[in-house]
Amino acid sequence: MNNAAIGVFDSGVGGLTCVKELIKLLPNENIVYLGDTARVPYGSKSRETIMSYARQDIEFLKQHNVKMILVACGTVSSVLPAMDIKSDISISGVVEPAVKAACSATKNNRIGVIATSATIKSGIYGKAIRSINPNIKVVGKACPMFVPLVENGYTAPDCVPARYIAQEYLEIMKKEDVDTLILGCTHYPHLTELISDIMGEGVTLVSSGAELAKYALNSLSYSDDTAEREERESLELYCTDSVELFSENVERFLGNNINAQISKCSLKL
Amino acid sequence: MNNAAIGVFDSGVGGLTCVKELIKLLPNENIVYLGDTARVPYGSKSRETIMSYARQDIEFLKQHNVKMILVACGTVSSVLPAMDIKSDISISGVVEPAVKAACSATKNNRIGVIATSATIKSGIYGKAIRSINPNIKVVGKACPMFVPLVENGYTAPDCVPARYIAQEYLEIMKKEDVDTLILGCTHYPHLTELISDIMGEGVTLVSSGAELAKYALNSLSYSDDTAEREERESLELYCTDSVELFSENVERFLGNNINAQISKCSLKL
Hints:
Chains A, B: Substrate binds at residues 10-11, 42-43, 186-187. Chains A, B: It comes from Hominimerdicola aceti. Two copies of one chain form a homodimer. By secondary structure, chain A is α/β, with parallel strands linked by helices. Chain A has helices at 16-25, 47-62, 74-83, 95-105, 117-122, 124-132, 146-151, 160-175, 192-199, 208-222, 243-254; strands at 6-10, 31-35, 68-71, 90-93, 110-115, 137-142, 180-183, 204-207, 235-239, 261-264. The first copy, chain A, contains eleven helices and ten strands. In chain A, the strands form two sheets. A six-stranded parallel beta sheet of chain A has the order 4-3-1-2-9-10, with helices on both faces. A four-stranded parallel beta sheet of chain A has the order 6-5-7-8, with helices on both faces. In chain A, strand 1 (6-10), helix 1 and strand 2 form a beta-alpha-beta unit. The radius of gyration of chain A is 18 Å and the shape is globular. Chain A binds chain B through residues 37-39, 44-49, 52, 144-145, 148-149, 151-152, 154, 160-162, 164-165, 240-242, 244-245, 268-269, and chain B through 37-39, 44-49, 52, 144-145, 148-149, 151-152, 154, 160-162, 164-165, 240-242, 244-245, 268-269.
């Protein structure tokens, strides 16, 4: 048993899709979330800058005595192996859980990955999938407009600009006949309905944030590190820009009956 | 005569539209430009965070011994008066030059302003315009999708998503019958053709970055602070994220026959 909280971070609000799953799957675990809203987005920035920000995010969560750190940011997850972090507690990104789920789901051995420019450039999904099954063909596509579309509410399947851009991005996925598509950025689940509609019923969508939450459940159970309490005691959400701006998004991602404590924190801005 | 360089900064690459004008108008002036690409964008962030970043940007340019600082960022310009900066050298934003140009241009006393959320929230354009002529009606509209559209190359007048979103944003401007529209964010001139097409021929578009460059020309001439040389000696461009990512944009904004020195610098990241 381990009553310390689970630490989660993202460049901004996208990682709250992972928190939403954690709340469902692990209703008695305390959670500390950090969104680096003063420097969001990470996905269009350089590898070096992303790593430097991620180190600060991890340090912040460590200071909150968490028992594990979930990197609910596709972009940071893609540079995580190269960061070579020494840590007493486990630090897990979205890549491995998403890749495992996708490799189990695919029937025709053709997996697509959509993510930020930085993630696609890293090539990490291809490497991870081929290490499980070298016969799987991996098709990657950077979708830099998806985050602004989601953040500005252009998500409905009949939304003209969202549909046009999504069709443009997903054309290669249809052409390459993928039967499984990894949503490698934690913002993308907001576009699930639209993406499903374009890709068609036969294609399985894998939400990287949700898979990471499932991984946390399995990992804590396996190592007997679950909390010894009936109900969650605290859900602490930290942001690096204003609490007011962040709160609007928290409501949009988690609903408005969430009992969370939202605070501003300073990394090294 | 004053041979020190002109300092210019922006949250990212948008301010290069002002540099482009400076190069044309003041071909013998040295220029030092800073784009805070590691923390871009500013326009969706809080007033407090924007001010804190802007102070660091200004400090950086001061260390380069510039003779004047041009704030080629609509968002920072909108908080500049509230920052109450004590400085030996002049620090000028885009608001005043753009407002003067718009007030001269309007015939029906109806001016529109499009800009980032932070700029529109500040209400600064309304205040500045009414201080010149209280009879002018000012219509403001935040256009948060315009920066990602420009940065991802969705700018052509026949581009479906750009046109759809622009029509949505500009509807109020047509309804309110503005005859002059201030492009209050330095990214927006890339959408000039599209915006003109939607607004119609009778509407004057005022580019805030270009007006700021004209202001610099007038101000240096007036105070006899122009440089004493035939041709520019240096165009130094600094960014806070990788030079590689920045260079691509420099070419897109300034063309590829620009003789510029591009370096990465560190603020307090």
